[in-house]
UniProtKB/TrEMBL annotation:
Annotated GO MF terms: hydroxymethylglutaryl-CoA lyase activity; metal ion binding
Keyword Ligase applies: no
Top-level taxon of origin: Bacteria
Family: Belongs to the HMG-CoA lyase family.
Residue intervals of the Pyruvate carboxyltransferase domain: 8-275
Gene3D superfamilies noted in UniProt: Aldolase class I
InterPro entries the record matches: Aldolase_TIM, HMGL, PYR_CT
Gene source species: Brevibacillus invocatus
Signal peptide: none
Any GO BP: L-leucine catabolic process
Name used for this protein in its record: Hydroxymethylglutaryl-CoA lyase
Pfam families: HMGL-like
């Protein structure tokens, strides 16, 4: 497949997935200012926060204030993670555009992350998704541990298929396939997508790579070559999962843009503005980000 001139959608998840595991609380005003900068980069989707109970994710305890305080740019979809119908009620009051529900392909990680079995999670997500759709919102679904689980190791593809089929039957428009602990490599990504793309259209799938072993960009390239055109990433390579010990951050947005643009693909995002947003947050957090571009200072 000729990938030059392909249009790729990059979904910025830094304000949620990037910050959720941080021990230092980023002040609400700084979060709002950062998201406003991201809105001016040309990105079409920003996941701005999480409406999981603040007790579980204190770094995002200001979800309502952030969602209500940002300046909304035309053409940008503002999404948030929602765990259940109660979380969705708060999200709707804060006027989010897109609700992201989440669960795992592996039983143990689902129990650790959601405190429920996979089977018991389905009706909760169905109720949440249908309520969001009734409120005229779009819904995407995250599947964690697609390429491996920190507790169970290898995850069978049949488990991923089962979860994906259930989510799509709920009316969810897009499935984001998560390499939660960042262990996937290009051959594994190819093998998994060869199976999934026989069952699900490429336009219904997104990829969400973490970079624990430095494989995120390579895995992205394989995914693009196989027809995937939507990818989640986080400014600076921020992120990690509180229920995935050892997991490092997300694929860095600025590194992803460098690769995509350098290979002739288009995203609609201005790389220089994305780097400015990264530098702004790095200064506020007082730590060096892990992305290659932030390391070399360009």
């Amino acid at each position: 497949m000729d990938i030059s001139s392909r249009k790729i959608t990059v979904k910025e998840v830094g304000p949620r997935d990037g910050l959720q595991n941080e021990s230092v609380f980023v002040p609400t005003a700084d979060k709002i200012a950062w998201i406003n900068q991201l809105s001016r980069t040309g990105v079409s989707y920003i996941e701005i926060t999480s409406f999981v109970h603040p007790k579980w994710i204190p770094a995002l305890s200001d979800a309502v204030e952030v969602a209500q305080g940002i300046e909304r740019a035309p053409g940008v979809t503002y999404g948030a993670l929602v765990p259940n119908a109660r979380g969705l009620e708060r999200a709707l009051l804060a006027n989010i555009d897109d609700a992201a529900v989440f669960m795992s392909a592996s039983e143990t990680h689902n129990q650790k992350n959601i405190n429920k079995s996979i089977e018991d999670t389905f009706p909760i997500l169905k109720e949440t998704a249908q309520a969001a759709l009734a409120a005229q919102k779009t819904v995407r679904g995250y599947i964690s541990t697609v390429f491996g689980c920190p507790y169970e190791g290898n995850v069978k593809i049949d488990a991923v298929i089962r979860v994906a089929e259930n989510l799509l039957e709920m009316g969810i428009q897009e499935i984001s396939l998560g390499d939660t602990i960042g262990i996937a490599h290009p051959r594994q990504v190819q093998e998994v997508l060869e199976v999934l793309l026989k069952r699900f259209p490429a336009e219904r799938l997104a990829m969400h790579f973490h970079n624990t072993y430095g494989m995120a960009l390579a895995n992205t390239l394989v995914s693009v070559e196989m027809g995937i055109s939507t990818f989640d990433s986080a400014v600076g390579g921020l992120g990690g999962c509180p229920y995935a010990p050892g997991a490092s951050g997300n694929m860095a947005t600025e590194d992803l843009l460098y690769m995509l643009h350098g290979m002739g693909m288009t995203t609609g995002i201005e790389s220089t503005k994305m780097l400015e947003a990264a530098r702004f947050l790095q200064g506020k957090m007082g730590k060096k980000f892990s992305s290659h571009q932030m390391q070399i200072g360009e």
